[in-house]
Amino acid sequence: MKPFDIVIVGGGGAGLYAAMEAMKTxxxxxxxxxxxxxxxxxxxxxxxxxxxxxxGNKAKDDTVExxxxxTIKGSDYLADQDAVDVLCSEAPKIIRELENIGTPxxxxxxxxxxxxxxxxxxxxxxxxxxxxxxxxxxxxxxEQCLKKGVLFFNEYFAxxxxxxxxxxxxxxxxNMKTGKVEAFTAKTVIFATGGYAxxxxxxxxxxxxxxxxxxxxxxxxxxxMKDMEFVQFHPTGLRKSGLLVTEGARGEGGYLVNKDGxxxxxxxxxxxxxxxxxxxxxxxxxxxxxxxxxFDSPAGKYVHLDLRHLGADLILSRLPQIREMxxxxxxxDPINEPIPVRPTAHYSMGGIDTDNFGRTVMDGVYAAGECAxxxxxxxxxxxxxxxxxxxxxxRIAGHTAAEEAGKFQPGxxxxxxxxxxxxxxxxxxxxxxxxxxxxxxxxxxxxxxxINVGIYRESSLLKKGIEDISELQERFTKVRVTDTxxxxxxxxxxxxxxxxxxxxxxTVAVGALAREESRGSHTRIDFPQRxxxxxxxxxLATLVDRKLIAGEKPVTMGRYExxxxxx
Amino acid sequence: xxxxxDQQQEPKRDVxxxxxxxxxxxxxxxxxxxxxxxxxxxxxxxxxxxYIKEHxxxxxxxxxxxxxxxxxxxxxxxxxxxxxxCTAQVWDELAKCREPGIIKVEPLRSLPMIKDLIVDMDxxxxxxxxxxxxxxxxxPEAEMGRKEFLISEEEFERYDKATDCILCASCVSECSILxxxxxxxxxxxxxxxxxxxxxxxxxxxxxxxxxLVKDHGVWDCTHCYRCQESCVKSIPIMEAIHxxxxxxxxxxxxxxxxxxxxxxxxMEDIExxxxxxxxxxxxxxxxxxxxxxxxLPMAVKMIMKRRTPPxxxxxxxxxxxxxxxTMFREMSEHVKEDQKSHKK
Lengths: 567, 344
Ligand SMILES: Cc1cc2nc3c(=O)[nH]c(=O)nc-3n(C[C@H](O)[C@H](O)[C@H](O)COP(=O)(O)OP(=O)(O)OC[C@H]3O[C@@H](n4cnc5c(N)ncnc54)[C@H](O)[C@@H]3O)c2cc1C
Ligand code: SF4
Ligand code: SF4
Ligand code: FES
What we know:
The complex is a heterodimer. Chain A is an alpha/beta fold. In chain A, 36% of the residues lie in helices and 19% in strands. Chain A contains 16 helices and 21 strands. Chain A is globular and about 65 Å long. Flavin-adenine dinucleotide (FAD) is lined by residues 9-15, 34-37, 39, 42-44, 46-51, 134, 156-158, 192-195, 205-206, 209-210, 213-214, 244, 246, 346-347, 369-371, 383-387, 390 of chain A.
């Protein structure tokens, strides 16, 4: 295959925007997008709530500056303020651009893009399309990429960066349809592979494939991971499956109620009530449950999300997907009954360390979207800021790579490397015998993470978590792929995903143990205060000689001084 | 082998999943494997398949991603009907089995087979590309990002439902024409085309329409309604198909290419004393009133366009036909009025 100027790994919002922008920047470039699922299946489609931008359509007095402040405060002052400036100033432009190319936004009475309130925001600035915002954004981007003739390699599973010393010369990936390992020699590679919150498995709202593949690939190539300990729990996951009931439900006026019939948020955020930021609401629910005020069921403890007072009309017109999900996965119709919910691992703030242009420390390697950590979300992401992040920084990464591709002249990826890779995969395949079951490992990983590296953390729990993870890593060497066929080997794919999750889980747990303070989503029972003196900094995890080496990086400050974060 | 998804102490049942198997590397022919597992209420077909893959046979291959009915990956035929495995409840399916206790699971139809329950989606993507299933904005690229188009809630509602489509291809698998003609545009692509054509931001309406009226296009549809009946997002696909047809007639005239032929056949059916009503229309599933409300307006408009007199009294006087006759008369009057007031 002819060398590429840009290979983009991931066809979610970040990857597709990068592709579109790169083609716009330089139409002569040879660009490919690889995705392990058809791009329109990417997890971006699951985002229901919306995307923030200070358009001022709903609240005329909203400003970019207020959006910046809300984001920095929401991040518990761990976000880099220059990056947040970029995010929020670009927001109105990018939302309008999406509108201009066909995204079907819901509308206000004056025919402008509709906006609604969302957690942690001082003004209603979340732009939405009913409760399918991510889905319609992703559709629009995919359509536009088809229009522009972007070259897609669908159902290709990225395996490794090919390195020449400390330089990247491209990507190695497996074609799922044939099982063949193929080389994509490339001047630049952009990772846009989404988040890693699926490592919490059954206690996660994420798609089965949100296994942090891009992060794990970059990590193994020696690129540092940043702030991995910050995993956001969404307050309202369905009790049985972990699947999400969006914040939109609370934005429209839903109540959280404990078994005593009390709207308990009055205890934790008397002003914002249910619209407090996610980390606070998640902790509040967890506290209610821990203190015995939750409901009990065979599938676990939970609280109620009550929408009944909103009425059937509003539920049907504004929250149809939520209703459908509660019907399908809990057997509950929110028009007549409250929905059983509990916190679920939802979003990964940490990721591949990048600068404000999407560059990593490795020349020619970029990252954007949930797999990257710029960082605009710091210790806690605000609802509606992630779609914004993937769009804004997807575009920036695409632009930067297009501008810089000419600078790099990588050698070709040698055939021998491809063969080695193929042999390694083959060596895992074995039809029979006594081996570890990958499904069991996956579940155990999720369990230990939820218990020991969950919402409430503590030194001895975290140490147990780290032990468990290393034991699971050891057991992983005995996992075998029993499907020995080449064509569409999903067994092999899931085993490789498990490996990626195990590698990253270590960085999450080690980061969480190191950070001896409570900040944003990271709550240490043994260190309940935010400690700005010791911990107002990013953590880094870098793999050197197969060992995790911990590092740190200062937070970029700006106009806003450190303040206590209260709502 | 019987193994169990151990969860809650709810009632369990042994369920057999009879699953279509085919691995092109080794099999010259497809076959079925039976997997019997114990399942309690509230478990979906996808969770059962996941369980089988993890505990019984790791080589069983299917696609799944969101597990929440959002991404469209897991469409397959369950008990003969195309649907999402991740939202199909096992206990509901048990009520629909041909052989008691045996749920049959097969891949989608009309798309090339890859392995087991996995089919190739590329043909669908090619069709989306062929029919320009995107907005070609009236706004020049250089001006984008500066201001919004102003769009009424009313316009939004015109394509709101159509943008629910998750491209799962269930409708594709159920479409009767596609089974005979793989080149047929496909219901999902018609739906998307319609969605683009009613969007005021788009600039290539005519181009898209000119493709849609060609061979294998919108006029090949037989109105069997199977796509709409099977749509996993309950999208009224037929409204889109009618919308395109009406649009084609309005903007291209009734004598347009192959479309006209089909339209005429449709009219002849009606003129043959309601034969169409009995034979072709989806009265069985949608009811006579629904059918008339949705199909008749277009028929009447077409007749008025051709200035042919309304069809002769319909001979068979079943209840349905009576309603049909009255509605047809009323509708003809309306359209005449309309045309008069337009000329003024
Ligand atoms: C249920 C839910 C609701 C949400 N709601 C909101 C919301 O309302 N507002 C908001 O702002 N954010 C929301 N988020 C967060 C937001 O949706 C995600 O952060 C965002 O969509 C991530 O986009 P992405 O482009 O980075 O990655 P994804 O959309 O996850 O795309 C990742 C891509 O990478 C590809 N990929 C991954 N691994 C490989 C590999 N090994 N080889 C090849 N390709 C690979 C995948 O195929 C996919 O195409 C929500 C998240 C969830 C889970
Ligand atoms: S109504 Fe038309 S498009 Fe729909 S299934 Fe029947 S033939 Fe196919
Ligand atoms: S129209 Fe319905 S059935 Fe067809 S692809 Fe779209 S969502 Fe699936
Ligand atoms: S797995 Fe996504 S729709 Fe079923």
